């Protein structure tokens, strides 16, 4: 059972907090264990999200069925419930006045912006982000805000016309129709619309008789023939169990043991070791000066104290970010010096630039980026491996506005920040997430302290050849090990109690832990 306290609003933006409660209840994004990989080692998506379309009369129980499916799924990756109600068209002042007098037909298919609904759903299904409109039933109007959604592995969409349009039907993996007695629907609608949508009983009945019932008979009820399964509008727990069993089976079939595969796929990293010069032009290693080697020696030394570790990590982060900055485009700029002479220089030639840190070991590099670009927008991604499968899971996405909106993301340069690239599983997931948002591959600069030669970097480069990787050192080994879990007394516990991790060797240890603990 997906307990209430295990569900969170997920991959959402702050605008949702100003939504009226009805809307935020209808459009929810929930997760219990994060999103497993949805792409192959070529970096391309291998499976779409699983989409369920639920149609039925008004107040038949569509939203209820959607919520019951989520509950019955138990431990699931991310699920979004998307209501067709959000896609009612924008209305003029005259139309709103008519709506308050129950003189607008909201039950005709033309009342809903079907192309926009299909486009948003297609984006979500194809694992791209979308920004859905927000509709106010109290005002009968589309609001100016939108709601950002990204990252659902399962999408449940519901609405009276959810099965009406062929473009919508073609997006569903499972089509459901909720069949409910008309009296029960009317009774529920009166109760709900008075309580939640600011209506009077007379108004609800008037609207029901004039528009809702005829539209149900003409447009909604006939779509039941498209459904794969018809669910009763009450006492429907058996049907819900059947649906969730089907979804679970589909999800298991789609699951891939990504991390193991990545390691078995990886080949020697293409570098000439002697001088550290990369063979691949997009793997940029800092010049191996004695000064740089001195910094790495302190950082590799397990006996270095925390203060030194932080100081030298900060210094190294600045070097790396400065190196990465060389890859941003610049244009000529003429300035007049205090001596009155014109001088041709350079200025940054980018529309947007931001940093995205992989929590939490990307943190020290974030500070380095902020030292170089003081007002840079910063986002974060939380990727963690599943304790049982070792598979990376995308647990949290918090991105700045320039990435949440596709038309801005295509012109945004991103510094992707993580302490090291070992198996490259997190890097893969982070890059795929940026591409899903519309960021161009050659606008991504991955900045990292260490790359493991025997790790997944080669597969990463093969999948995303235009992404630049800026690092300070390439280490030889990558070893799977148990990271002990410590008990309350601070004593290590036996193998099996801890977490399986990949360790870069010789490496610098757990960089995030040494920096922050
Ligand atoms: N199976 C059910 N058992 C009891 N009450 C239900 C059931 N399905 C829906 N309801 C109630 O009926 C009302 C309308 O349901 P809702 O799911 O919002 O309808 P719809 O989304 O189809 O408009 C809500 O108050 C809901 O709690
Ligand atoms: O401004 C509006 C928009 C829609 N409606 C009514 O809402 C229902 C659909 O919502 P359900 O949650 O499926 O019941 C539809 O029958 C419209 O009549 C509205 O009253 N005002």
TrEMBL record:
One of its GO terms (molecular function) is ATP binding. Keywords: ATP-binding, Kinase, Nucleotide-binding, Transferase. GO terms for biological process: pyrimidine-containing compound salvage. Residues 51-233 form the Phosphoribulokinase/uridine kinase domain. It catalyses: cytidine + ATP = CMP + ADP + H(+); uridine + ATP = UMP + ADP + H(+). Pfam families: PRK, UPRTase. Residues 287-480 form the Phosphoribosyltransferase domain. This is Uridine kinase.
């Amino acid at each position: 059972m997906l307990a209430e306290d295990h569900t969170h609003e997920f991959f959402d933006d702050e605008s949702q907090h100003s939504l009226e409660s009805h809307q935020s209840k209808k459009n929810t994004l929930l997760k219990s264990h994060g999103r497993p990989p949805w792409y192959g080692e070529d970096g391309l998506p291998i499976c779409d999200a699983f989409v369920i379309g639920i149609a039925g009369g008004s107040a038949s129980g569509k939203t209820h069925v959607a919520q019951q499916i989520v509950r019955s799924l138990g431990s699931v990756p991310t699920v979004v419930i998307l209501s067709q109600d959000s896609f009612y068209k924008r209305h003029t002042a005259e139309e709103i006045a008519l709506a308050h007098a129950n003189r607008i037909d909201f039950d005709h298919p033309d009342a809903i912006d079907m192309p926009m609904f299909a486009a948003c759903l297609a984006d979500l299904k194809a694992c791209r982000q979308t920004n859905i409109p927000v509709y106010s039933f109290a005002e009968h109007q589309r609001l100016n805000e939108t709601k950002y959604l990204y990252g659902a592995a399962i999408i449940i969409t519901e609405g009276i016309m959810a099965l009406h349009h062929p473009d919508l039907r073609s997006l569903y993996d499972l089509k459901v129709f909720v069949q409910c007695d008309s009296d029960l629907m009317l009774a529920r609608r009166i109760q709900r619309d008075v309580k939640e949508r600011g209506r009077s009983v007379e108004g609800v009945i008037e609207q029901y008789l004039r528009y809702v019932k005829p539209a149900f008979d003409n447009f909604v009820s006939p779509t039941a023939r498209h459904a794969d399964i018809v669910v009763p509008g009450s006492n429907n727990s058996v049907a819900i169990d059947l649906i969730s069993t089907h979804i679970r089976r589909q999800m298991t079939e789609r699951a891939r043991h990504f991390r193991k595969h990545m390691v078995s796929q990886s080949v020697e990293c293409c570098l000439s070791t002697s001088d550290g010069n990369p063979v691949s032009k997009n793997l940029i290693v800092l010049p191996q000066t004695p000064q740089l080697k001195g910094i790495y020696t302190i950082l590799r030394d397990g006996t270095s104290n925390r203060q030194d570790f932080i100081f030298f990590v900060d210094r190294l982060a600045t070097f790396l970010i400065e190196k990465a900055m060389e890859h941003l485009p610049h244009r000529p700029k003429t300035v007049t010096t205090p001596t009155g002479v014109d001088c041709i220089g350079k200025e940054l030639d980018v529309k947007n630039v931001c940093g995205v840190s992989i929590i939490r070991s990307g943190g020290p590099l974030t500070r380095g980026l902020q030292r170089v670009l003081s007002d840079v927008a910063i986002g974060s991604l939380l990727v963690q491996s599943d304790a049982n499968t070792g598979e990376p899971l995308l647990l949290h996405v918090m991105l700045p506005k320039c990435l949440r909106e596709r038309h801005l993301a295509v012109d945004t340069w991103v510094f992707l920040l993580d302490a090291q690239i070992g198996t490259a599983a997190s890097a893969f997931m982070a890059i795929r997430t940026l591409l899903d948002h519309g960021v161009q591959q050659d606008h991504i600069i991955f900045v990292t302290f260490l790359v493991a030669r025997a790790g997944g970097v080669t597969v990463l480069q093969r999948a995303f050849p235009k992404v630049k990787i800026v690092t300070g050192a390439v280490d030889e080994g990558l070893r799977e090990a148990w990271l002990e879990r410590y008990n309350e007394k601070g004593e290590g516990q036996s193998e099996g109690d801890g977490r399986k991790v990949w360790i870069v060797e010789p490496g610098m240890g757990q960089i995030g832990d040494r920096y922050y603990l």
